[in-house]
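pls design
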């Protein structure tokens, strides 16, 4: 018997091709509109003015972030004035409409290009399977994480009502979360979970992986990047507890850097130094502005050493 396969075109591929054509057409129009309307010389002049304005704006913003005192506020003033000056120059040259139209067309190319590059869901995507019932789940909760979400959403009581043993990270002093999780496994835990930040999630996930146990993510941290990637509700972490009675399992990768586990991302450099600051949680903007000058100048923060074959590069983040 012959195998008569469907010859219908791949509609998804066809749609992406049309999105790609639209992106190219919009990009061409973004260049053509000012050329046709204002002419070559005016268009080149407008382009130079725009590039100059963007350059001044970026430089001023950098010095605003990298400086303190009077220089910081002078830089902010320049950053605020530069787009106004560019706008006035465009108005005086009677080119505002052409420039705005060109910018709008250029911006429209972005969603078209994204739609054209968006692939189909892979057949190897992570699949959900029903989670088997557990007898002794142990949940480690950080009452200080996320501005006190454990207490705000009454997570301890709700978890205990569902049959979980809850361990609070209350100190005194620094608690070794990894050892705490290992003791829970030795005591018979058949599921580990965390209501806390991504760092605590990673440490306990490492112990769960070592012992081939399921791991429950409760979105009670500040940023909850891992919970977001899993599609969990970040506005109400108590909904994550539903997995204790009606959950699904996903197999995900666990990474390690220098023996320390991480669940979805690991950072170093300016961002990592800022978010690890205890003051960041309560005053994000103030902490960033206070730490950036020293971090950008290389006077604070961890030093990176990169080994590339026989070549050792020290502090590459300070190369200008």
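designed seq:
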């Amino acid at each position: 018997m012959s195998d008569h396969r469907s010859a219908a075109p791949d509609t998804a591929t066809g749609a992406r091709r049309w999105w790609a054509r639209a992106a190219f057409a919009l990009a061409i129009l973004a260049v053509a509109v000012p050329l046709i309307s204002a002419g070559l010389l005016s268009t080149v002049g407008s382009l130079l003015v725009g590039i100059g304005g963007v350059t001044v704006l970026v430089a001023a913003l950098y010095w605003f972030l990298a400086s303190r005192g009077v220089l910081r506020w002078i830089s902010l003033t320049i950053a605020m004035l530069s787009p106004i000056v560019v706008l006035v120059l465009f108005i005086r040259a009677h080119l505002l409409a052409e420039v705005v139209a060109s910018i709008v067309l250029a911006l429209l190319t972005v969603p078209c290009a994204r739609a054209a590059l968006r692939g189909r869901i892979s057949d190897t995507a992570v699949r959900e399977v029903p989670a088997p019932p557990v007898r002794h789940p142990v949940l480690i909760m950080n009452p200080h994480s996320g501005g006190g979400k454990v207490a705000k959403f009454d997570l301890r009581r709700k978890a205990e009502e569902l049959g979980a043993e809850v361990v609070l990270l209350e100190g005194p002093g620094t608690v070794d979360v990894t050892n705490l999780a290992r003791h829970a496994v030795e005591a018979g835990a058949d599921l580990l979970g965390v209501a806390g930040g991504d760092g605590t999630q990673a440490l306990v996930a490492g112990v769960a992986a070592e012992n081939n146990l399921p791991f429950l993510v409760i979105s009670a941290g500040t940023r909850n990047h891992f919970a977001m990637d899993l599609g969990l509700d970040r506005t109400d972490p108590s909904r994550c507890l539903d997995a204790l009675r009606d959950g699904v399992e996903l197999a995900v990768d666990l990474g390690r850097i220098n023996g320390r586990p991480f669940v979805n991302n690991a950072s170093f450099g300016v961002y990592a130094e800022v978010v690890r600051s205890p003051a960041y949680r309560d005053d994000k903007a103030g902490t960033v502005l206070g730490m950036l000058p020293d971090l950008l100048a290389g006077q604070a923060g961890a030093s990176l050493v990169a080994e590339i074959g026989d070549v050792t590069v020290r502090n590459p983040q300070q190369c200008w």
